[in-house]
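Dear colleague,

Thank you for sharing your sequence with our group. We've completed the structure prediction you requested, and as agreed, I am returning the results in plain text so they can be pasted directly into your records. Please verify that the sequence below matches your submission; if there's any discrepancy, let me know and we will rerun it promptly.
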Amino acid sequence: MNTEESFQFLNIKRSILKFLLVLLFSNTFAHGHGGHSDQILSHIALHKVTFAVSASGVSIKANPLVLGLKGEDTQWVTVKLKNPQPTAGDWVAVFSPANFNSSSCPPAEGDTELETPHICSAPIKFKFANYSNSAYTKSGKTSLKFLLINQRADVSFALFSSGLSNPKLVAISNYITFANPKAPVFPRLANGKSWDEMTLTWTSGYNIDEAVPLVEWGVVGENKVKSPAGTLTFDRSSMCGAPARTVGWRDPGFTHTSFLKDLWPNTKYTYRMGHYLNNGSFIWSKIYTFNSNPYPGQDSLQRVIILGDMGKADRDGANQYANNQPGALNTTDQLIKDLKNIDFVFHIGDMAYADGYISQWDQFTAQMEPVASAVPYMVASGNHERDWTNSGSFYDVTDSGGECGVVAETMYYVPADNRAKFWYSTDYGMFHFCVADTEHDWREGSEQYKFLEKCFASVDRRKQPWLIFIAHRVLGYSSNNWYGLEGSFNEPMGRESLQKLWQKYKVDIAYFGHVHHYERICPIYQNICVNDEESHYSGVVNGTIHIVTGGAGKNLSPFSPVTPLWSIFRDHDHGFVKMTAFNHSSLLFEYKKSSDGKVYDSFTIYREYKDVLACVHDSCEATTLAD
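Please find the predicted structure tokens below.
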């Protein structure tokens, strides 16, 4: 074969490969488990960027030059734009670090024949130039407002023409920065491994060689103490693939976690994160407060929010191309609005939908700061946090965009023995939660299955009557369209092993995300409703109620045209659920829409301890007639 024939063969081979990849991703999206290419930033063809920066008369200027002069970690910036040759395809991108040229490109991997791109890092966000001024294409002048968060580096704005698919870099703004870009920001509370321990995690730009991380905290109105914090981070080599390892990479700074121990139950505490610098001075965050957890089994009002599949959205209107997370801000705002009536939050997977664009995790923690800084914000692992081919995930797909669990496991604390295995148990008063990791094997005989059985078996139902199972993928029941097409109405192999555990240990409610809507299933065992009631359940626990609550923000999923008999309530809208335990016998469940915060579905459970002990099918203890 001569050189020309070899070249033609190589091109044919590449074309076939490209076709197969397109076919693969089309299949993936049709199934509803989408890969990372639905991340908005992935629509920008950075590898095609061309330069026209010398174009005369074009200018882009940003103000103010210094942000956070009063300690703010979020601030509005105005970008003024002038372009003598405006088009509808003009757009403005936010880059941080501000210098985003090809010097930041990682060493070439794979096909060395490909030319190094001019830009190797994706922007943090972008807007089309005509976003706030429809007359821009005539006047060539406009003013855009961006809401920036402190992400540990300076910022610049770049004007591109020719849309997202063939971008042409026309102008770059002046650089702006936060007064202290390394400041401690975005606290996340979470339960520790004991009921009287709260963990506090935050992000900063300070490594331990230049500052010691710590927390100053104590009961409101009393003397404060200082507790140390540990520090974690990760680098590009920790990522499993693109885009997290390539255009999506951004330095994550440092994640610090402190363990606040020996807390008094139901007590209001105040805290602030800090860093003790080598020069002997302190850098402090603003002051926050939280209420400590009740003692396990304590009889008091306890309110828990459960939601899944939220994502992030931008209050400045940026990144709304495709509008693929339309409910995220509505859900966030409803939680903030009702925060005084919330004690505990569970986000059951698919949190930021960063999908390999690491900057978006900071954006998400900033969005959730008002909630996560005030109440325990517990998380579970989803496919968009963990899954990557040949990385140990149960599903051999690319949904994490190359993150393969590293980012979520670093940025969020959970009381697991090994955060790479994201299953754990935790308590809140009368609730006992058993949290599964659906991205690892849960089937009978697996390590996780043994953990879950131990978690169910260990709870004292007299003290903690409300036993809750949480998982990302639907291991129970769902009438989602793609599950219906598969014929199983659940994740393949989902409930085959676990339903006997739910029945044996009389799990009250099983919660799932992954499917982007709300659905309530009757108390059920082996595909049969075991209770005809729909609104008020009482007496013996003869089946587990299943709830799908994956509608917190991402684009909604269609239901099957067939409604199974076990499906009691379906809502194709964004929302979240709330459980309120009034005491050891009474629990209220509510489904609320994110658009207005009103209740659209609800039920109550009333039972006594003897009802939990009672023998039902496949959950009877061994007995004897011997005296």
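Summary note from our side: Confidence is low (pLDDT under 50) at residues 1-36.

Kind regards,
the structure core
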